[in-house]
Amino acid sequence: MIKDKNKKNNFYYSNDSNKNESAFSDVSLILKNRINIVLKSFLIIISIILVRLLYLGFSHTNEINFDNFISEKDYNTRLNIVDRSNLLIATSVDVYDLVLKVDKARNLSELLAKLKKEKEFKNINVEEIKKESLLKKRIVLKKKLDPEEYKKAVLLGEPSLELNKRQVRIYPQRNLFSHVLGQIDDDYKGISGIESYFNSKILNTTDPSSTFQITLDSVIQSQIRQELLEAINTYSSKGAAALLMNVNSGEIISLVSLPDFDPNRRESLNDNKFFNKITLGTYELGSVFKSFVIADALELKLVDENTIFENLQSKTYCGNKVFHEHDKKIKNLTTSEILIKSSNVGAMLIGEKVNKERYKNFLTKIGLFDLPSVEIPEKTKPLNVNWSECTLDTASYGHGISTTPIQLASAYATLVNGGYKIYPTLIKKKNSHKQERIISSDTSSRMIKMLRRVVDKTDPAEGTGRKADISGYSVIGKTGTADKPAKDTKGYTHQYISVFVAIYPEEKPENLLLIMIDEPKSSITKGIYRTESAWNAVPVAGSIIKKIGPILAEKNYNIAFNVKQDK
Amino acid sequence: MFELGRTNTDKLALWWRNIDRVLLFLILSLVILSIFFAYSSTATIASEKLNREDNLILFKHIFFSSVSFFLLIFISFLSPRYIEKYCLLGFVIASILLISVLLLGVEVKGSKRWLNLLFFRFQPVEFYKPFFILICCMIMSNLQLGHIKIRIFYSFFLLIFSLILLLKQPDVGQSLLITAIWFILIFVSGVSIELLISLFIFIVISICSSIFLFKDKFLYIFQRLGTFFDATKGDNLQNQKALLAIKQGGLMGRGLGEGILKDQVPEAHTDFVLAVIGEEFGIIMIILIFGIISYLFFKIFLHFDNENDNFKKLSLIGLSSLFYLQSIINIGVTLSILPNKGMTFPFLSYGGSSMIGSSIIFGILLCLSKKKYL
User: How far is CA A4 from the centre of its chain?
Assistant: First the structure.
């Protein structure tokens, strides 16, 4: 600091120096003690700034929340959903909406005029927004800003504008998983499918980097969906559905129901394309039920494979109702042949041997009337059957009794997996489901042999499933064709539901493929002469097995499951 | 080879010998730093905001930097006598420009502070400030005008005139700045404390009353003050983000081009250039820049003791306080010590007017601080 040389200069009576000044122009105008005060005050300010600088330097944060422009009120996150090979099938992206906070706008018309001038926002409707501003506090000016619009909005620096951050759900595979994944609503909550069933697990989880895995396989799902689309085209059918499931674990590898929808588009849920045929539809599925009556009879040791039923008529009666056989010949059939040739009258005779109570119990025990265990909300419990006089007869060959395709599949899984009850699931489970025994393993292996003969091309009995006998896979299965009940009146229409349950390989059944075709038509030009399952569902199943067989073999889901079990 | 020894009486050689070369190099280093920072802080703004080629603002900045640096060299070539002679002319031109702002100015964000020249927007107050201070110094040091009190009253009227022009814009920040400099000037020239206090009270009362009389025009001041003291209400977006940017930068910064403040805040490259720098290069760089500007200030300020001429002494004190106080206010706003003022940082802030104003100030200071060798 400068030493004060002029001792006369008192701080409070400084006018003395000014008196001298007029005498000598050389005398300094400036008082050095005051210079010192100025410099000292500057020094104080400097030290304040330095302290502040150092304080800021050491209060280093990595706070990313940089934008007070951005409102996260509506910000909800949902987990990514992946398939069993970790392929992304549902994900979320952040988007921003430009929101006008009406009460913070100083001059609304000026602000809107300014926005309108920018080429990014030239489409806003000024008049409408002004009208709205009288009623609302927050007005959405533009939804889902693109990066340029976003940057422009930020750089406008307008305090009354706010960017509303929210997530948008994206389903990259579009229609492929529609019925399984379901949809979400405006509040980002799941309203159907997995999105709804596991909403609490998927919505706003603490660990947003994790994923939610389901057991479906994208590749197989898309192959099956493609085949079904072709089938709908070929058979001019109303719809089709397929289910691929592991018979040991109940893991669903593919679930397709057509027509389907694109979950990326939000539409009204009334359309029939939102209807999941596999889990929500209950149908009379026809001859596929013959396996159950035979399995029950085998389990009760009332018959064996070679028990012969003689002189089977082409017509039979229950009271005044008439039941027809497929062909008119009178013949003798063994139990196996009843199944292979799908004889209605034969199945009725076996049903009578089993009797009503025991058959009813068996169907209940095997789960055909259960609510499906699959983890989506769109499922239904089949209506209770009123077991009247003739119900036993019809139920033996699958009429007058209805169930969901998924429960049919799980019942067939029980028939072939050694007799254990199966709970179809979309989530990988750590432990096996094979705990609850329904039929003995002996009955199960006998059933497998019989069901193989249905499909086996070389079998002299000429089974109904021959078109699905893909060499190398030793497919087993059972067809079913049922008249659809009339909607308004009693009785049946002439439209059919075709079902085929295919399981392979015979030696150790693993994969169950259920194909259902809704109202297939015959077409002579395409070489399809009949509408029974053998002419539509069976060849479709065959070509699907041909396609997915190598993929499934490579991925080896069942073996992976067993390895886990051993540990 | 160009000979700069004492035998050479060439103009350039004289200039080189007499100029304070430390000051010159520090100023030059500030200019070079400013070009470098302008590159990092404006490149994206130019491309995103103006939708033109990437480096438009950078080229503009380089253009103004070189223009103002040559202006600075030119002024420093002048003899101090010329400054005394022509500062009145400069003041008259600056006053005309300032008055024309009120008539012809363009309004940007609620204030009429700019003149729209063909190729750039000119803010005459930057040009006006140095000449106002020079004129004040001239009046105060001119013995022919009478007793010191009388001289101070003359300059006081000048101050009132300037304040009326500035508050009409309205530009409270610059008004406070020149008022503060004027008080420093009369304080060091030995005005009695009673007079000082009464002038101070008078000015405070007149500014306050004018603010309250034209409340709607000064609404932004209340809002800024309100948000400064209560961060939760209103829009102190720039300040908050600048502070956050500096915090994110920490001591060493995030690295060149890593800053995001410039993309988040409007006008980050002018008033908040230090936050942009701090985010990318750390507190260390802010301290370095602050160190350079402080060194410049003390060196120039204390130079007054070497001079005999009262005008020179007062001008050195006044102009150095002007740029230093301006820098301090800018830093204070950036660090959220002070409410938002709209004050630029000499040389570093982007903007032609600020650059040219700074080069006039530093040119005159270089000129006045020349040694008196022949």
Answer: 87
Neighbouring CB atoms inside 10 A of B75's CB total 19
- State how far the Cα of B247 lies from the Cα of B245, in Å rounded to an integer: 5
- Chain A CA closest to residue B196: A12
Chain B residues closer than 8 Å to A23 by CB: none
Put simply, the answer to whether B263 touches A155 (Cβ < 8 Å) is yes
> Dihedrals φ, ψ of A103, to 5°?
-70, -15
Write phi, then psi, for A420 (nearest 5 degrees).
Answer: -95, 145
Q: Could you tell me the CA-to-CA distances from A182 to A189, A191, A343, A376, A378 in Å, in that order? A: 11, 7, 40, 9, 9
Whole-number Å distance between alpha carbons of A509 and A476? 9
Angle at A496 between CA A240 and CA A357, to 5 degrees: 105
Q: What stretches of chain B show up as alpha helix (H) in DSSP? A: 11-18, 21-49, 56-77, 80-104, 124-141, 148-168, 172-188, 193-213, 219-229, 237-249, 261-264, 273-302, 310-334, 352-368
Residue A298 token pair:
């085998």
Q: Find, among A407, A363, A409, the residue nearest to A502 by Cα.
A: A409
Beta-ladder partners of A258: A240
**Residue from B136, B232, B246, B338 whose CB has the most chain A CBs within 10 Å, to mutate:** B246
Going by C-beta distance under 8 Å and a sequence separation of 6 or more, which residues neighbour residue B359? B68, B69, B71, B72, B75
Cα→Cα distances A152→A65, A161, A384, Å: 19, 12, 63
Chain B residues in contact with A152 (beta carbon < 8 A): 48
**A165, containing H or E segment:** strand A161-170
pLDDT for the residue numbered A387: 82
Enclosing H/E stretch for A169: strand A161-170
Beta bridge partners of A333: A309
Asked whether B121 and B354 are in contact (CB, 8 A), the reply is: no
Contacts of A29 in chain B (CB under 8 A): 140-141, 148, 189-190, 310, 313-314
Position A493 scores a pLDDT of 79
What is the C-alpha separation between A380 and A515, in angstroms, rounded? 19
Establish whether the linkage from the previous residue to B170 is cis, with ω within 30° of 0. yes
Give the closest residue to B356 by CA, choosing from B20, B158, B93.
Answer: B93
Chain centre to alpha carbon of residue A170: 13
| Phi, psi for A95 (deg, rounded to 5) | -130, 160
CB B348 within 8 A of CB B33: yes
- Return d(Cα A108, Cα A160) in angstroms, integer: 9
Q: Give the C-alpha separation, A322 to A328, whole Å.
A: 14
Q: Residue A399 above 70 pLDDT?
A: yes
DSSP state, residue A562? H
The mean pLDDT value of chain A amounts to 84
Domain ranges for chain B, please list them: 8-368
Residues of B in contact with A18 (CB under 8 A): 147-148, 190
Q: Which two tokens stand for residue A395?
A: 């139920």
Residue A93, strand partner residues: A168
| Lowest-pLDDT choice from A164-173, A265-274, A435-444 | A265-274
The residue with tokens 């410039």 is: B262
pLDDT tens, A424-466? 999 987 766 667 899 999 999 999 999 999 999 998 888 889 9
**B49 in A contact zone (CB under 8 Å):** yes
Q: B241: distance to nearest CA of chain A, Å?
A: 7
Angle between helices B148-168 and B124-141 (to 10 degrees): 170
Side-chain half-sphere exposure of A315, counting CA atoms within 13 A: 5
Q: Is the CB of residue A59 less than 8 Å away from at least one CB of chain B?
A: yes
Residue B204, class by beta-carbon neighbours within 10 Å (0-12 exposed, 13-18 middle, 19+ buried)? exposed
CB atoms within 10 A of CB A222: 16
Record: contact B190-A155, CB cut-off 8 A = no
